[in-house]
Write a structure and sequence with these properties.
Elements: H1 9-31, H2 34-56, H3 61-66, H4 68-90, E1 108-113, E2 118-119, E3 123-135, E4 138-141, E5 145-151, E6 164-167, E7 172-173, H5 185-190, E8 194-200, E9 205-209, H6 215-234, H7 238-249, H8 257-266, H9 276-289, H10 298-318, H11 323-341, H12 347-361, H13 369-389, H14 408-411, H15 418-453, E10 455-457, H16 460-483, H17 490-514, E11 519-521, H18 527-545, H19 549-575, E12 577-581, E13 589-594, E14 597-602, H20 604-607, H21 610-623, E15 628-631, E16 638-639, E17 646-650, E18 653-658, E19 673-674, E20 677-680, H22 688-694, E21 695-696, E22 699-702, H23 708-721, E23 724-727, H24 728-731, E24 734-737
Parallel strand pairs: 5-8, 14-15, 18-20, 19-21, 20-22, 22-23
Antiparallel strand pairs: 1-3, 1-6, 2-3, 3-4, 3-5, 6-9, 7-8, 10-11, 12-13, 12-24, 13-14, 16-17, 17-18
Amino acid sequence: MRSFWNQIPMLRITLSLIAGIGVQILADSVLHRSADVLMVILFLLSSSLLTLVILNFITKTELVYRSRVINGIAIFILLFSFGYVLTWLYADKNYQTHFQKFLTNESFLVAKITKPPLEKAKVITVVAEIDAVKNKNESTATTGNILINVMRDSTSNELKYGDVIVFNSTIQEFDEPKNPEEFSFKLYQSFHNIYHRTFLKGGDWKLVGEHQGMFLMAQVYQVREYFLSLIIKYVKNKNDFAVASAIMLGYNDYMNSDVTRAYASSGALHVLSVSGLHVGIMFIMLNFLLGWMDNRGRKFQIAKSVIIILFIWFYACLTGLSPSVLRSAMMFSMIQFGRVMIRNVNTYNIIFASIVVLLLFNPFIVTEVGFRLSYLAVLGIIFLHPKIYSLLVIGTGKQPEFKKQKNYFLKAFTFLRHDLYWFFLTVVDLGWQIVAVSIAAQIATFPLSLYYFHQFPNLFLLSNLVVIPVSNLILFLGTGLFAVGKISYINDIVGWCFNFLLVVLNKFIFWIDSLWFALVQGISITMIEMMAWYVLIFLLCWLTEEKRTKLVLVSLLLVLGLTSSHSYRQIENSKQKQLVVYSMPKQKAIAFIDGRKVLTAFDEKLLSDPSAMLFHVKHHWWKCGVDEELKVASYTLHVEGFPFGNLYFFEGKKVLLIDSLLEKIDFAMEKKLKIDLVILSHSPKVYLENLKKLVDFDEVVFDSSNKKWKVDYWKKDCSKMKIKYWDVTERGAYIKNAAIF
């Protein structure tokens, strides 16, 4: 019998390809040596090809068998190199035709809008492809995408997919993250082949063409807009509307932080993106409804598969062909195709084959968290769900002796009439199915979720018992609403039911979110630990198929390694002493990290803004293992009574924070106080030359709450007086370990 590993060769092919893609991304985004490494990769590619050609001419079976390891290594190198080269070729910036190479201050750019514009409060955000760059009388055809923010007015509100505009403005690259562990918008956009942005006011651009996009995509976006208008008609509450558009269309533009947080806390965030779950529901529903065709011959089986695949892609078009829907539609289409065209098909091979197909079209798709989560969830459900479900056998009442129930809890209900007991068992069985699915998906996705989101929803089982069936009904009713949207009376009934279920779902989710024990936050694991967790999960799954001593030993070693790594980080975190001045737009954010607690000197407005804290600060605190937050004023770190500003003693270092509005410093100190660091905040009226007469300091930090013109003035003084300075707005967060002050 072939081993579990040998039964899924597509897994090895997929991992080899992803390894090459990952190395290219690392070489480009971290090492910035993408082109240099490319030469090495091309050499490896040619060497592996030559090796395979030589091995192919070996005719003796014994020699071929002996060289199987070399053959395997050559194939791995071939796939690895192919993945690297494919990713390098996919990035527009590597081509000589990229528009950046032709830009001057006088350049006019011709841009075609390639996605529906996103309307925000003050701007319209569009993604456009630069078709040409015009310099004087010369026009050069170019490639490359750009993100454009257009000031909202009556003209920009009319922009749509396929429009062509001409503009002349300053083109900028995206900024690097300003704070440690902060989300990198620059890196995120680079994975979507976008490396530049610009801002256009009303007179900076001109519309020169319309309807220049792909005809198919234009029709898809029109269908989506029609469906969105139906949802708006029947769903009035903004939170309910945001959830409806997310569930039905994968349209997250209307989501706010409160809704996102509530669904994340309850473990139901997966329903807010059209993904494998939604397409999988459609897939299962259609297979059930068309099940009668399975026993009517080959032609009916092929017809069933064609209907299912066409309907899945119609639904994908209805949602606007978002990336998450595309990958799910591809995966389930290949599964359905494999079922009817290939005998004894291995579902895992089909799933990994669908990953390979998607990577061939877009290797950067592997960087999307949603891509990884959806595939991991599907793999977890397919493999683990049957095993978990079999742990509790529940009769549905169809068996002749169904009252001979082995489960003592269910046996207690055998006093019920036959039909009532059958209904009771059916409901319990459905609930257990949902629980088994939820546990399987959670096992498969929790390491990746911990790595990216640093939290775990404790009540995911409870929430999914309600969310999964209700969201399924919402999905069916929403699809029905689209079908009967123009039929009077019927559309109103369906629309009312659709809205009612959304209200029920949101009320339940916000109730779960209100429970203090619903969510554990602040969990931090490294990438190595995340990968170790997945290796451990894979080995344990392998053990359920094949009982091998080596697998047990390796699993135990991984558990020991993970435990040791966690303990080591806990010890290191308890010793840390850091001063951090975060870069926050127009706000003060100073933190003293002392072991596993943080002492904050933040603006109150910032502390009361959970979204800003989460985006800019919390991820860094979680990495540092912070589990206690205190205001610095309530801690002995703060010394009262200093003549101006606030003086803090931190691990033997003196930090002077000046944020009061001093007209002038007209008093003298008896003795100059040696200060290790001065922090200026909220544009105090302080002259560094006068300050130097009172206190002795060699370094000053300007936080991001200061006005730019004032910081520029201070910088000149620092240069004149040879004082080290750090502009947080320009250079990012200031981080100093107490030991190296």
